[in-house]
Each structure stands twice: as C-alpha cells, then as structure tokens.
Amino acid sequence: MLKKKSEASQLPSHYAEKSWQRYAWLYDPVVKILFLPFGGEGRFRRALVDFADVKEGEQVLDACCGTGTLTLLLAEKVGGTGAVTGIDLSAKLLEEATKKVKKALPLTFSQESCADIPFPDDSFDKVFVSFGLHEIAEADRQNSLQEIYRVLKANGSLFVFEYHLPQAVLAGFTVKAFHRLFEHEEAYRMLLDGTLLPELEQTGFIIRRKRLIGAGMFQMLHIVKG
Ligand SMILES: C[S@@+](CC[C@H](N)C(=O)[O-])C[C@H]1O[C@@H](n2cnc3c(N)ncnc32)[C@H](O)[C@@H]1O
User: Fold this and answer.
1) Which of 21, 59, 99, 123 sits CB 3.0–4.6 Å from 119 for a disulfide?
2) Which of 20, 135, 138, 146 maximizes ligand 1 atoms within 8 Å of its Cβ, making it the mutation to test the pocket?
3) What is the pLDDT of residues 72-91, one digit of tens each?
4) In terms of pTM, does the model score above 0.85?
5) Which domains are seen in the chain, by residue range?
C-alpha cells in the first residue's frame, strides 16, 4: 500500500525532509489545533470534498497528501469501483498516513514528487492539492502544475485548498503573521504577490469557481483544463 523511493538522495536538495522526519508525528495534532477557531479541521476537509462533489467510481489523485487525512475521506467517497492515490515526497508523513488506514479502502500511497508524476496522461478524473502548492519549492512549482495538468483527464478537475490574503485588516495581519512564524519565505512570497492564480492560468488551467472560507484566510479553487 505504501511505495517508497529506495534512496533518500532522490529527493530534491531544496526539500526539507529533515523537518518532516522530526515532526511528522506532530503534524495531525497541530493541524487539529490550528483549525479549532474555524470550527474544526473536519469541517474544512468535508467542505473541500463537498465542493469537489467526489463521486463513486472516480479515479482521484491527492498530490502532496502528507499524513493522508483528506486522502482517506476521498477513498471513502469513490467506493469500491474508484481508486485514490496519495503522493508525497515525505516517506515519514506517508508512514503516518498508512497507519491511519484501518479498513480495506481503494487507496495507495506512494513517495513521489509532483514535479515528476509517474502516471500516464489523462489518468485522473480529479486531482486535489490541499495546502500543498505553497510547500512546493518555486523551482518545482511550474513543473508540478504541468504534471498535474498532464495526468488530469480532458474533462477532469483540479481542486486546490490554500491560504488566501483577506482584505480585512485583522484577518490579513493574522495570515501574514502566521506565515512569518511558521511558513517558509517562498510561501510568504506566494501569499503576498498573489502569484497562485496567474501561475495556474499560465499552465493552461481555467479557474472555474473560487470559495473563500475561514474569514477569507483560506480559499478553495475548482480548476479545469483550458
Ligand atoms: C502542509 S503539507 C499538506 C499535507 C496535506 N495535503 C494536508 O492537507 O494536510 C504539504 C505537503 O507537501 C509535500 N510536498 C512538498 N513539495 C512536494 C513535491 N514537490 N512533491 C510532493 N509532495 C511535496 C510535503 O512533503 C508535505 O507533506
């Protein structure tokens, strides 16, 4: 169920696997606490699954799946006739994800980079990237978006969950301060410059729907192939 890369040296040099190795066990509890003021993590995860209207029988990719919380919800939705694959660069986070699988589900985890997705063109009905795009190093982001574009079926959809910079002063300050404290420089730059949507459009994607949640500090995007 978990396919790992044989050599850690295959990871890109800019990737912070060391931090994930040390703190993988803390990821889920921290996310739970962070989302408490917004009604809980479950509310956000379910909102994304509902937003995407995931159906039985669909082929789904969860890119940058981390500890697999969303991946598991997706696997429940696609039923026995569909399949969900979760990919992430971190072997340690994928191990945490695998531990959470307590029953038979149409689910595979694999240690892969979004910049080099090992699936043929037009493989997936839906691709998800939840809190992942700001984590992909700038050096890999354009390749990763192109790879996601390639593996999506022509009538498929990409669903992105990401930070958003709200106009309201207090909420805007909160997101910026959070980035300063806990996110890396490139993620902060993406937030301030608003480069996410132009980068998606540059890849050939069309933004079909955008929904803001959590006082505008987060966004859900429904994106299709142009
Ligand atoms: C903040 S976590 C999000 C995890 C999960 N999607 C969630 O919603 O909780 C970001 C994840 O992106 C992964 N990641 C970063 N760059 C990646 C890349 N180029 N390819 C695959 N995964 C990557 C990290 O290992 C990490 O698990």
Assistant:
1) 123
2) 135
3) 999 999 998 999 999 999 99
4) yes
5) 13-225 (3.40.50.150)
